[in-house]
Structure formats: structure tokens, C-alpha cells
């Protein structure tokens, strides 16, 4: 499913195996557990780096499991379960008391795209892999928190239109031009290496994680409201 490893100030959350990393209820639960563990072990200077093995960062929800339910209504019910279960992952990434970096080494589609976008920094491989919101092609409406996240995280109106209403498949350099991705790199290895360098630079700042998380939440009040994350004012420690 996924693993969490701490090396110095950096936590490495890795989606393991060479499959599509479909966001099943089991994988979602594993992600929540890892994020909770990172939060509980956070100290000044902690940074989270998320990546995956194989061709896919994540290909979205486990639609195969939903379609195996035996009827259209049962499939919709299973999909709704995954949509509801994934919302706390977005909430956890908004609340975790440290900077977060996604190193996307392969395809990221639908909820997998949102998983990457929910990090503070989003790095991507340029030679392989695309970002793709498949909902318009599949005839599925966006959950409210998906829309809120894309409104919060993608500043370009035409960029949001192309991603959400056109189902455009974006490669690394295109995503950089749209301001979605921080930087694009030539291989999976160089993407992760760049994410680690960035993480180490951020770790050196030794920020107060609770204050960092509250500032992050204050940047995205509408998204926080939709996913049920409150914004507090922590006491400053000078």
C-alpha cells in the first residue's frame, strides 16, 4: 500500500509496488495512517516528501472495485464511499504541521492528480507521465472538495477550464507553464532527487510546524471549509 520512513528531518511517504496505486478504501486508510504518524512525530524542520513506485503516481479511485458491485446503483454507492473516504486525506495534507512536497514520477489522474495537488510543492517528471482529470470524459461530476481544491490551487482560469472541462492531458513542461507544477525533470530519479533537495532546503528553515499549518490553512479558507478543517490562531513563540 504505502510506507512512511523518516530520514533526518524528511519523512518519505511512498506508494509501493508497480501497479496503478488506485485509491481503494484500503490505500486511503493506509495514507491516513501514514499522515497521522508523520504528524505525531513532527518536529521543527520536518518535511514530508510523497512519491510512488512504477509508471503511476496514482490513477485515481478504484473504479474496478466500484464497477464490480453488480449494478449501476451499487457502483455509484461504492464510488461515493471512496469519495467520502478520500476527503480526510486532503484535510490531513492541509493540516499536517510541516511543508509537503509531491514528487510525481508517473501518471496522476483524477483523485491521484488531487493527491499530488494537495501538497505545498508539486514536482513532476517531464519525459513520461501526464496529469489528467478524467471526470468529464467518464461522465462523472466533480465532488465539491475536488472543485474547491482546483479553484484554490490553480490560479489560471483557462488552466482550470482545460483541466476540468476539457480533460486535457498535461505533460510536465505544460503543467509548469500553467503554474500547477513547481518544476519538471528528466527522469523519475531526478524528480525525486529534486524533491529531496527542496525538502532539505525547507527543513533548514526550522519553522514552527503548527504555525506553518495555520498559515497554509489561511491561504485556502474555502477549501478548508469544504473539507471540515478549522483555522485557528496559534500562539507565536519568538
Report on this model:
- The chain is globular, with a radius of gyration of 17 Å.
- The protein has helices spanning 25-41, 63-67, 72-95, 111-117, 135-138, 144-153, 157-165, 172-177, 188-203, 209-219, 221-227, and strands at 2-7, 10-15, 47-52, 56-58, 100-104, 107-109, 121-125, 131-132, 183-185.
- The chain has 238 residues and is of the alpha/beta class.
- The mean pLDDT is 95.
- The termini are far apart.
- The chain has a single domain (2-227), classed as 2-enoyl-CoA Hydratase, Chain A, domain 1.
The CA-CA distance between the termini, in Å, is 40 Å
Beta-strand content estimate:
15-25%
Number of separate domains? 1
Overall form: globular
Strand order of the largest sheet: 1-2-3-5-7-9
Secondary-structure element string? EEHEEHHEEHEEHHHHEHHH
Average pLDDT, rounded to a whole number, is 95
Largest sheet: 6 strands, mixed
What is the helix content? 40-55%
The total strand number stands at 9
Radius of gyration: 17 Å
- CATH H-level superfamily: 2-enoyl-CoA Hydratase, Chain A, domain 1
* CATH level 1 class label: Alpha Beta
Low-confidence stretches are none
CATH architecture: Alpha-Beta Complex
Total helices: the number is 11
Oligomer: single chain
Amino acid at each position: 500500500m504505502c510506507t512512511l520512513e523518516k530520514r533526518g528531518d524528511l519523512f518519505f511517504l511512498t506508494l509501493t509496488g508497480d501497479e496503478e496505486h488506485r485509491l481503494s478504501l484500503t490505500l486511503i486508510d493506509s495514507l491516513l495512517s501514514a499522515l497521522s504518524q508523520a504528524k505525531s512525530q513532527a518536529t521543527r524542520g520536518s518535511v514530508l516528501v510523497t512519491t510512488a513506485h512504477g509508471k503511476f503516481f496514482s490513477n485515481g479511485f478504484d473504479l474496478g472495485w466500484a464497477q464490480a458491485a453488480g449494478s449501476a446503483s451499487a457502483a455509484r454507492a461504492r464510488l461515493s464511499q471512496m469519495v467520502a473516504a478520500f476527503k480526510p486525506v486532503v484535510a490531513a495534507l492541509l493540516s499536517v504541521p510541516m511543508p509537503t512536497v509531491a514528487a510525481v514520477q508517473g501518471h496522476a489522474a483524477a483523485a491521484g492528480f488531487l493527491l499530488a495537488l494537495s501538497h505545498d510543492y508539486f514536482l513532476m517528471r517531464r519525459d513520461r507521465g501526464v496529469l489528467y482529470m478524467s471526470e468529464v470524459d467518464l461522465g462523472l461530476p466533480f465532488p465539491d472538495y475536488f472543485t474547491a481544491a482546483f479553484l484554490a490551487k490553480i490560479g489560471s482560469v483557462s488552466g482550470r477550464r482545460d483541466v476540468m472541462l476539457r480533460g486535457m492531458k498535461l505533460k510536465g513542461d505544460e503543467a509548469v507553464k500553467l503554474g500547477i507544477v513547481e518544476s519538471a525533470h528528466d527522469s523519475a530519479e531526478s524528480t525525486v532527487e529534486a524533491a529531496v533537495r527542496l525538502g532539505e532546503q525547507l527543513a533548514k528553515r526550522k519553522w514552527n510546524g503548527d504555525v506553518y499549518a495555520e498559515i497554509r490553512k489561511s491561504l485556502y479558507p474555502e477549501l478548508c471549509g469544504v473539507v471540515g478543517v478549522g483555522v485557528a490562531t496559534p500562539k507565536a513563540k519568538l
